Each structure stands twice: as structure tokens, then as C-alpha cells.
Amino acid sequence: MIPLIVIRPQPGCAATLMAAQAFGLDARAFPLFAVRPLAWEAPPRDSFDALLIGSANALRHGGDALAGWRGTPAYAVGETTAEAARAAGLDVVATGGGGLQALVGTLKPEHRRLLRLAGRKRVALAPPPGVTLSERIVYASEAQQMPAELAAMLKKPCVVLLHSAEAAHHFAGQCDTHAIPRRRIALAALGPRIAAAVGDGWAAVTAAAAPHDNALLELAGEMCQTLPEDSHDTAGLMQDEFTDDRPLPPAPPRRGTGRRLLWALVVLLLIVIAIALAAFRYPDVERELGMLLGGKPPAVPVRIAERAAPSVPQAAIQATPPAMLATGLETRMAQLEDRLSRLGLQAEAATGNAARAEGLLIAFAARRTLDRGAQLGYLEDQLRLRFADAQPNAVETLIEAAHAPVTLDQLNGELTRLTPKLTGIDRSEDSWSRVKREFASLFVIRRVSEPLNRPQDRIEHAKLLLSTGKVTEAIAEVGQLPGASAAGPWIISARRYETVQRALDLIETTAMLEPRRLRDGDGTAVEQLSPLVEPPTVGVPGV
Questions:
Q1: pLDDT digits (tens, 9 = 90+) for 265-293
Q2: Rounded alpha-carbon distances, angstroms, from residue 445 to 349, 404, 441
């Protein structure tokens, strides 16, 4: 597996590094940016209807001036920024999925005056008609020089994560400054705009399906698995290694080749002569040889009392030139060798595909066992044998999780048990107060587009999300409840479940796509490429 490079600034760099390692990736952190806060003066709060936030750094480095904006409606560019906004006490009303400009187009009618908290380098926005947009610069992201260790790593195949267009421009410039060939580096971008900003000449440039870290890491995991470890072409390698225009060193002579070829021709000639003599002296040999070589055997009489006379006169056989007979036999033997070669390749492919199928069955069995909350048993040894070389972190995550498994049923049951604490219901209230509260909650009138505000509604929505496997969204719902502080252990268990599911996904992907480090039941490396991956074309630049 080729390494994954994270270049975003801290603390996001450390968070992405930990998440990538949880995915089982060989991730390395080299922050090429340092974020520092800038002094800013907060305008009067009543002058604006909502905040527009394009980065979690605006909330991390906004300082004490943000304290006066608690409870203000906020529009966040992505889920990470939305989580930081909620932690700062803001009321997140919408989370974007395609950049700030698309988010501005989804404003509520009552939010016509926006205050944008941004960094020094930012994307210019065009607000809709009737909407005013003011800006406050609260932080600066300063580019750093590429360290020598990173420059050395980038001269070999790797995948680099890009979280912003600024990062794309800076990384491309640093590669050019340090004379690092682009064709060995694959780029995984957080969005299409970032992918478009990086330029061309790279081994691959792909944008994540959604603008959040999980989708980006899933994409990076696939790229680390599927891209070859030596992605540069032969001509490019020669150019890099012989930049002083010296002639390439001659290939070492192959000793004994002519002598081996001569002996092979002599042996082949002796075999042909022996077969020709046998066919001439014993006519039945010709029929048996024809059947062996795939030819059509001559017709055999229904009843044979004794050996029949040859159908072709002996004089005609003697008149057949030996060279013609030898040429036909050589052709048949060449066809037989070609057929045996194809059978050998098919047998090798079948063996490799069978090993992949066995690995996929092991991965499915591990998922089913962990979903039931049972111990892995013999699957633990199989996971180590087949996947430890390719995905050591994912295997250890699954084995460790099996000692204290977490299931969706457990999460649902614990959420039900915590409902009184999460919703803020006082169990000590008298019967009359409880009756009045229950009666008042029988009928609730709200708009269809209005978000869920009642704690009980959020609990039910969280349970629905859990039943569909959307654990991250369920955690977000629980985090907005009045008694969210009581859900700390539940959130930890939910995140453990999510980590296990990601590790299972990675193991299944490895069984299907891993080109080199997957092993079969005997511990032998599976060298046959997966039928799902198109083999690289030799000699084509960039492949």
C-alpha cells in the first residue's frame, strides 16, 4: 500500500491522521500551513440575522468576541464546521455540501443580513438579491516551506489529501520548487473546486463524493489500494536517473543462450524424426497422435476381427516428403504448447480469484459475528493470516472490538434508557404535573420545513438514524438534546461502532482490490490481480 500524506494545518491535521490510521491507512502528517488568530472587532449583534462560516478555524481562533454571539443562527460550509459551531453555542440552521456559494442560495427568508467570519484568504461570494453580506477576518493561514523529509517521500508514489484550494496551489508550487515529479503523486481533494485548482500532470486527481473527512478518507483508501506502487513509466524513470544525458549502460550479456537454443533444436529434431518413423512403421500411431494433438481421428470400422490393412497404400506413405510431415507435427506441437500455456494462466487466475473469494467470505463472516455481538473465535486467526500484512491497523481494530463488541441493538437500548436524562424530564414531578405535560404534548403544530425541536422528537429521529446505520447523524441529534452531557459514554460506544464498521469496509475492499499483500489460507501472497481492476498498460505515460 502506498502512503497517505496529510498537509492540512493543526489541529485538523492530527484529527485526520488519527481517522486515517483508524481506516488502516499508512498515513503521515506534514502540516504545510500554520493558522494564527487575528484581532477583530465584533459588530453589534442586532445588526445581523445570521452568521456565515466557511471554516472551523474561524470558530477555533475567533477568540472571546464570539461569546456574545451564542444562540445566533449560523450557516456552516460542512459537517466539521457545523460541529465546531454547535460547540461554540451557535444555532446551526443549515449545513452545506457544495461550497459557500451554494449554501448562500439556501438562506431562510428571515435571514437577509449575513456576517461572514473568514480567513485572510477566502473565496469571493455573490449574495442573492436583497441579501447583504459583511465580512470579518478572524484568522490567517500562513503557508510553510516543505520539509526535506516530505520532499524525499514525494519522489515515490503516494496519495496527498487536499482540504482547500489554497492548499492545492501551495502544494503544487512547492512540488515545482523542489523539482518533484508530479506523475508519481495522486491527489484526493475534498471537493471538485479544489481538484480543479491543482493543475495537471499528476498521477490522478479525484474529488470526494461528499465534502467531509469520512468521504475523503474512503476515497484515499481506495486510491492507496488500487494505484500501483510504481506508477511512473519506464521512459520517465530513465530520464530521472540519467539527467546528464550520459548513454544508458549496456545490458549484461546473457551467457549460454546460444548453446541452450542449439540443444533445444537438436532434441526437437530427434523427437520429430522418432514420431515420423513411428507413424511410417505403425499406422495406428498416427491415429493416436492425431487424437492427442486435437486433430480429428480417422474413421474406425464398427467390427474389427484383426488389424485392418492401411487405407493408404504403403507406396503413397513412402512418397510423402519427410519435411512436410515434420512441418505439420511442429505446427501441432506449437498449438499444444499454446493451449497448455493458456490452461496454466487460467489455473493461476482461478487460484487467485478463489483466494479473494475466501477472503471476502471471511470478511463477511467477521461483520456478521460483530453485528451479533459475538466473539470472533477462529475468524481472528483467519483475519490475521489473510489481512494482517495489508491492513494491520484494521485487523487489530476488529480483534480488539470483538473483546467488548457494540451492536446497534445495544445502542438503541442504551438510548432508550437515557431518554429521561437526555430530554430533561424530572422523574420527581407529581402526577398532576405529569398529566398536564403529557396532555400538552399531544398536539404540536409546526411547519413541515421546520427542524425537530422537541427532545422526544430528536430521540425518535436518532433511533431511526441508528436503525439505518447512520451513526454519525444519530450522534449529532443526541448532541443537541438538553441533557446531552449524560450521553458521553453512549457517544463513545457509538463512535467505537462506527470505527469498527469502517475497518470492516476496509477489509472487504482489501479482499476485492488489494494487488500485492493479500494472502490465501496457506499464508501465500495472492499475486493474481482482482478481476475488478483493469491491469495497467505497460509503456503508456502516467500509468
A1: 766 777 777 766 665 555 554 555 455 44
A2: 64, 44, 10
